[in-house]
Design a protein that fits this description.
The chain is α+β, with helices and mostly antiparallel strands and 467 residues long. The chain has helices at 25-36, 73-92, 108-112, 114-123, 134-140, 164-175, 218-226, 295-308, 353-371, 415-422, 432-439, 452-458; strands spanning 6-7, 16-21, 41-44, 61-62, 96-97, 101-105, 130-133, 150-154, 158-160, 179-181, 186-191, 196-200, 203-212, 234-243, 254-257, 267-270, 276-279, 283-284, 317-327, 334-338, 343-347, 406-408, 413-414.
Length: 467
């Protein structure tokens, strides 16, 4: 059976209003925004599925922006996005765990920095933060190490589903008329003064405006299409260790460190999938793809975790992973509108892009719309039906009747949800990675040892590369 890479399978259009390069968290949100505003949108993604770049591995925190660089594009996009996420959450069935965060000082030196962090939070309009004593914090989180000095409570920091959230943005875009083509790498393009023609691995596509959301390849796409780039991507890897489900009883809040000059530091938090996360590291590297983990770094994370949360010594580690973020030489996001070329570069979305995606989409839309008001919003907007929920805070398919039994016992993913993901009308999966992001199969303790045989049978004719 030929593998579909075009969603929906309708006829391609001769000319689009907007072509978005890249379907990461940011591309998905921008596709949704422009589609609902009435533009004809095409998204070109080189991976077999959406979320194949930086967006596939992160900490999944919905940030308030309390610590974002003041007066930055990042801070304003986070603030806008946070509000919009909250207002869309019920309509789009987006899971959320309202955990709150504790930013903790473990030395006197770190404690001295807390007032400055509080001031920054207030400047950024995150006014509900408060300084807490070690005693109050240990009452709240009794498993933390007792050498704690003091901390700041940030009540609105939360956890979200890193995959379902952008997936729903893209799903809504497609249901309202956008088109997505996967396995489609943009290699070059020309602008004739009015429109773009992009060259890709699946032929040529025309559009009035191009939006570059290529994440780790943002600078290279700018160089190919514009001939230059205002920034350089400096990939930064973050490794994580994931503790098995029983460990997630040990803490309830997101435990943040006092940040250092180069990174936000190692955090500890639950995941929306019911595990406990320690990480990330922050390693600058040249390679844009190498998301391998190393024993040395994982041991460093384990030691750090046990230092702050001693009871972790008795817990078992379930998995490890790494994400790579598109950092640049600048602190702020790199969003540049080249109005004479009908081109927007949306790059350098480093450590907060999952949170800020809706705000970035609004920001980019306003940039374009303030030049020329060309789109008129759809009269009727379709909201996707409740999609399969993989977050532990939602009712999972294994808890419902008629699920055809469990395929992945570690993660309790059912045969019905696997088949539904494979046969989805709008965005079916065609790789094991994609199936994992829709159902959680293979993510558990056995790391696919028990479920891969059955999964190979069920998915036999569906994947680009069979299991
Ligand atoms: C360790 C770590 C922890 C993080 N934690 C958080 C967090 O807790 N909260 C939060 O909000 N954010 C977090 N982030 C940040 C967040 O993950 C990123 O900001 C976000 O994923 C960036 O998304 P993007 O869409 O810009 O890039 P990407 O996800 O990289 O998307 C770009 C897409 O473009 C495609 N592409 C590239 N080149 C081409 C081409 N030539 N043709 C077609 N397609 C192309 C790629 O395949 C990819 O799918 C974290 C990041 C890391 C690494």
């Amino acid at each position: 059976m030929p593998i579909t890479t075009q969603y929906p399978k309708k006829q391609k259009t001769a000319h689009y209003d907007i072509i978005i390069i890249g379907a990461g968290s940011v591309g998905c949100a921008i596709a949704r925004k422009f589609t609902l505003e009435g533009a004809q949108v095409l998204i070109l993604e080189k991976g077999t599925d959406i979320l194949d770049g930086a967006s596939k591995g992160n900490s999944a925190i919905l940030h308030t922006g309390f610590d974002a660089p003041p007066d930055s594009i990042e801070q304003s996009c986070i603030a806008d996005s946070y509000q919009e996420f909250m207002s869309l959450r019920d309509k789009l069935h987006l899971p959320l765990m309202k955990t709150g965060a504790l930013l903790l000082a473990w030395t006197e030196d770190e404690a001295d920095q807390l007032d400055g962090i509080l001031k920054k939070a207030q400047y950024n309009n995150v006014n509900d933060t408060q300084r807490l004593s070690a005693k109050v914090i240990l009452n709240k989180e009794p498993q933390l190490a007792s050498h704690l000095k003091a901390g700041i409570y940030i009540p609105k920091e939360s956890l979200i589903d890193p995959w379902t959230t952008p997936f729903v943005y893209m799903y809504q875009a497609i249901e309202n008329g956008a088109q997505l083509i996967c396995c489609c790498e943009v290699s070059n393009g020309q602008f004739d003064g009015e429109k773009w023609q992009l060259e890709t691995s699946q032929g040529k596509f025309k559009a009035t405006t191009v939006i570059n959301c290529a994440g780790l390849y943002g600078d290279l796409i700018d160089q190919q299409l514009l001939g230059w780039s205002a920034f350089q991507i400096n990939p930064r890897k973050g490794q994580f260790i994931v503790y098995d489900t029983p460990a997630n009883r040990l803490i309830h809040s997101i435990i943040l460190p006092v940040p250092n000059k180069t990174s936000k530091g190692v955090l500890i938090c639950q995941t929306i999938f019911g595990k406990l996360l320690v990480g990330p590291s922050a390693e600058d590297q040249d390679d844009r793809e190498d998301a391998s983990v190393t024993t040395e770094t994982l041991q460093m994370l384990q030691k750090k975790g046990e230092e702050l949360l001693p009871a972790l010594v008795n817990e078992s580690i379930n998995a490890s992973y790494a994400g790579i973020c598109p950092a640049t030489q600048f602190k702020d996001y790199q969003i540049h509108y080249h109005n004479k070329k009908n081109y927007v570069s949306v790059s350098g979305i480093r450590s907060t892009g999952l949170t800020a995606a809706l705000g970035i989409a609004n920001y980019v839309f306003l940039q374009l719309q303030k030049e020329k008001s060309i789109y008129s919003p759809l009269d009727t907007i379709i909201y996707p039906k409740r999609l399969n929920q993989i977050a532990e805070c939602e009712t999972r398919d294994w808890q419902k009747e008629g699920n055809q039994g469990i395929v992945c016992h570690c993660e309790r993913a059912t045969e019905r949800e696997v088949v539904t993901a494979l046969e989805d009308a709008h965005l079916p999966v065609n790789s094991l990675d994609a199936l994992k992001r829709r159902t959680r199969v293979t993510m558990g303790r056995c790391q696919s040892f028990y479920c891969s045989a059955r999964l190979a049978e069920i998915t036999e004719t569906y994947f680009k590369r069979p299991i």
